[in-house]
Amino acid sequence: MSSLRVTGLRVRHRKTLALDSLDLALGTGVHGLLGPNGAGKTSLIRVLATVARPDAGRVELLGEDTSGHRKLAGVRRRLGYLPQEFGYYPGFTVRDFVAYVAWLKEMPAERVPAAVERAVARVGLADRIDAKVRTLSGGMVRRVGIAQAIVNDPAVLLLDEPTAGLDPEQRVEFRALLRELGASATVVVSTHLVEDVAAACTEVTLLDAGRIAYRGTPQALSLLGEASGGPGDHPIERGYTAALRAHRTTGAREAVR
Ligand SMILES: Nc1ncnc2c1ncn2[C@@H]1O[C@H](COP(=O)(O)OP(=O)(O)OP(=O)(O)O)[C@@H](O)[C@H]1O
């Protein structure tokens, strides 16, 4: 069953069509969202996170239509979201901040302290749990962002460029965490790093100019790259370029018809 389904999704920012009649259904696993700058990844994640409304189309999360307010609170309780630009209170400690998000998500109060400690430990910050967020490095703050997103053990987890700013060791650990989370949740992760996709994703969706250019497994994208012989330093990078080119050529052919 798909825990996340969008149909005919359209998002416009003034004159820019960020998402153009998008259809997508995702189930349990780690779904890598790839695409060039401006492809529409953040626009899609924001709509899925229910922080932005689409101009047209339908968004179903965990079997509920998100256009009605009635079911929204229940769905949000089961969501985790790390925005690209994540706001926090610098004077809060890591513990207080993650607990605050748990409270926003209406977690039962008695479950909060243990859930906070577990989420913070899972991102490797147990030794900084009582440090003020303002005293942490950029990469550590990003990890606090991941901790607040997973504190409620979400059924749908949306992460917008979570590995940006993480050091290599942390990226490796984070990918292992992604794989663990993807065993039971639907995880959508936007990234520009092919290593994230190769190591952590069960499926890849490539967006280009608000449309889906490619969907498949990382293995299939690698094979496409190997067959294309196009530019790139990694088979997935070559697959990415080949899939984009194929999509753009088809689009151009349809346009002259
Ligand atoms: N607030 C806004 N006002 C005007 N245009 C916007 C706004 N937000 C996004 N856009 C435009 O919508 C399109 C999609 O942007 P979006 O941020 O979703 O892309 P992205 O794939 O996340 O890009 P990146 O890889 O750079 O993060 C782009 O053309 C962008 O310029």
UniProtKB/TrEMBL annotation:
Q: Does the keyword Transport apply?
A: yes
Record-annotated ABC transporter domain positions: 4-234
Q: Which UniProt keywords apply?
A: ATP-binding, Nucleotide-binding, Transport
Checking Pfam families in the record gives:
ABC_tran
What InterPro entries does the annotation carry? AAA+_ATPase, ABC_transporter-like_ATP-bd, P-loop_NTPase
- Segments crossing the lipid bilayer: none
Q: Which molecular function GO terms apply here?
A: ATP binding
- Fetch the CDD domains from UniProt: ABC_drug_resistance_like (cd03264)
The family line of this record is: Belongs to the ABC transporter superfamily.
Q: Can you say what this protein is called? A: ABC transporter ATP-binding protein
| UniProt organism field | Streptomyces tricolor
